[in-house]
Specification:
Number of strands: 13
Number of helices: 1
Distance between the termini: 26 Å
Helix content: under 10%
Order of helices and strands: EEEEEEHEEEEEEE
Structural class: mainly beta
Number of domains: 1
Strand content: over 45%
Radius of gyration: 16 Å
Largest sheet: 13 strands, mixed
CATH architecture: Beta Barrel
Shape: globular
């Protein structure tokens, strides 16, 4: 019996997301079956800190980078680098979906509309401060698919999410030798998905 929950994983918590627009040549390695979604030779890469808490099937912290890609003409997301502080999450992510999770230590500090995050894997990976703006009214639904390589084949997994949205100003510090493939310059856009609920993987519809 696996030491992690079966899919789908029902998760809840806080997500702090930043997006950069970069030349295609600056992207990290992607699965062979997908192509970066580009405009005028430029692509979108995101960095996200996630705190899974509350009613999550697993509670842990996460730092990831992802690229907007296409599978044929269908828009998708590919996770290129990711760290967590849960052995169950690392094993389950790798075995269920081909997500290349590694382990790291995290620190999260919250105070008012400011959240500070940091991650290290022996050497520092990154730190960030998110200054949150006003909450947008309502709870916003989103659905998309994540594409990864699992056992030599492309694995496509649905994600369904609902959250409160707060525009943010994300200030990142990327460790030069940490392995996080994000630009050193400020992001083009940042957002907090506050008190989200999320279903990752096949089966079930609650989110």
């Amino acid at each position: 019996m696996p030491a992690y929950p079966p899919e789908p994983w029902h998760l809840a918590g806080q997500m702090f997301l930043s997006l950069w627009v970069v030349p295609k040549r600056e992207l990290p390695v992607l699965p062979d079956a997908v192509t970066p979604l580009t405009v005028a030779g430029r692509a979108v890469i995101g960095g996200a800190w996630v705190v899974y808490e509350d009613d999550s099937v697993l509670r842990y912290n996460e730092l990831l980078t992802a690229v907007l890609v296409r599978d044929g003409m269908r828009p998708r997301v590919t996770i290129t680098d990711i760290w967590v502080d849960s052995e169950q999450s690392r094993t389950g992510g790798r075995e269920l979906w081909g997500i290349p999770k590694d382990m790291a230590r995290f620190a999260v500090t919250r105070g008012g509309a400011r959240t500070t995050l940091a991650a290290t894997e022996g050497t520092p990976l990154a730190s960030a401060v998110f200054h949150l703006g006003r909450r947008l009214p309502g709870r916003w639904p989103a659905s998309y698919h994540v594409c990864q390589t699992l056992d030599g084949r492309l694995k496509t997994s649905p994600v369904r999410c609902r959250s409160t949205l707060r525009p943010a100003r994300g200030v990142w510090e990327i460790a030069p030798r940490g392995g996080l493939p994000l630009p050193a310059r400020p992001p083009a856009f940042s957002l907090c998905l506050q008190n989200f609920t999320l279903a990752f993987g096949s089966g079930g519809q609650r989110a």
